[in-house]
Design a protein that fits this description.
single chain, about 350 residues, Metallo-beta-lactamase, Chain A, Rossmann fold, seven-stranded mixed sheet
């Protein structure tokens, strides 16, 4: 069996020979190490020993209390480890998802594997640019793995957001933009630069933006939302804020959700908002195809979102592809073909 053989378990990937997890979401307190691609809550847990980028380490300080052993790696600089006499190497490549988001390029016994975590190829305003590269095996996220998911240019979306904010303010209302506190809020905040809008950030987004600034990113002027009157301001808040009493103040409030799922016509109604804008930190369908072509792997495993449908698409294009997340413990020996 290959040193890079793995199995999928509840969304995480485990390489037994390396005693390594990729985005394990169940706390690992034993000898296994865990690669953490980024600090969104669905990719982290309280592990004993982790491999991650410097920004992800800082974000984890906010999101996860407690001590852990950290291997903080710079992008593009290989780090070597040894597990039961087996030497292997891992290199972090920028994923383009949020600041510090990383793909793991793993090499052992002459084979290579690239695990993407969440990623996008499009250049963003608040994340490093994605750097694909060849690997023998590719494990990739496929959140938007259907052909209808094709994002418009971010500049057009941000122009629409600015127009929504100005129109709401001009009519005496308060525009509230609902976006995830880590990643999307900072992308949105930078996208509002030059629009002349007075901006308030909810507490979580404010904390993470401070860390972004420590890594050299600049932002337009903003203030912390601390219970002051909202009138005359643009508010950037968590999607859960739609149910928070601080937003129920005198005067009209117009809400807009900022998400890739805004491409679905039902998004505005499902989110209970007045508008929906398709700004995403994930790859859309054409980017997923382009990414596979750039990596040019021998075998592909799809994970999350429309994994099964995208695997079918790849097989139609001539790639050897299979979706993960079927059987709970699916062992995949990389040394043999999965298809007759």
């Amino acid at each position: 069996m290959s040193a890079l053989s793995f199995h999928s378990h509840r969304g995480g990937i485990h390489l037994p020979a390396l005693r390594l997890w990729l985005d394990g979401t169940e706390s690992q307190k034993g000898a296994d190490r865990v690669f953490v691609s980024h600090a969104h809550s669905d990719h982290i847990a309280a592990h004993r020993e982790v491999i991650l980028s410097a920004p992800t380490s800082r974000f984890l300080e906010v999101r996860l209390r407690g001590q852990r052993k950290e291997h903080v790696l710079a992008f593009g600089e290989p780090a070597e480890f040894e597990t039961a006499g087996l030497r292997w190497r891992i290199t972090l490549r920028p994923a383009g998802h949020i600041l510090g988001s990383a793909m793991a390029f793993i090499e052992a016994e002459g084979e290579s594997l690239l695990y993407t975590g969440d990623f996008k190829l499009r250049s963003g305003l608040a994340a490093e640019s994605c750097v694909p590269g060849h690997a023998d095996v590719l494990i990739m996220e496929t959140t938007f793995g259907r052909p209808q998911y094709r994002f418009p240019p971010a500049a057009e979306v941000l122009s629409d957001v600015v127009r929504f904010c100005h129109d709401t303010l001009d009519s005496g209302g308060t525009p509230v933009l609902l976006a995830y506190s880590l990643g999307k809020s900072q992308e949105l905040l930078r996208g509002l630069a030059g629009a002349g809008l007075p901006i308030l950030l909810q507490e979580a987004a404010h904390k993470f933006t401070r860390i972004y600034r420590q890594f050299g990113l600049t932002f337009p002027e903003y203030a912390l939302l601390e219970g002051q009157p909202l009138a005359g301001h643009v508010v950037i808040a968590s999607p859960l804020a739609n149910r928070v009493s601080t937003l129920r103040q005198p005067g009209p409030v117009r809400t807009a959700v900022v998400t890739g799922w805004a491409l679905d016509s039902s998004c505005r109604y499902r989110s209970g908002t007045d508008a929906a804008f398709p700004l995403s930190d994930h790859a859309d369908f054409p980017e997923l195809i382009e990414f596979v072509k750039r990596v040019a792997p021998g075998r592909i495993f799809t994970l999350h979102g429309f994994a099964a449908e995208f695997a079918w698409t790849l097989r139609d294009l001539g790639f050897e592809a299979q979706a993960l997340g079927g059987p709970e413990q699916l062992t995949l020996p990389l040394g043999s073909s999965l298809f007759p």
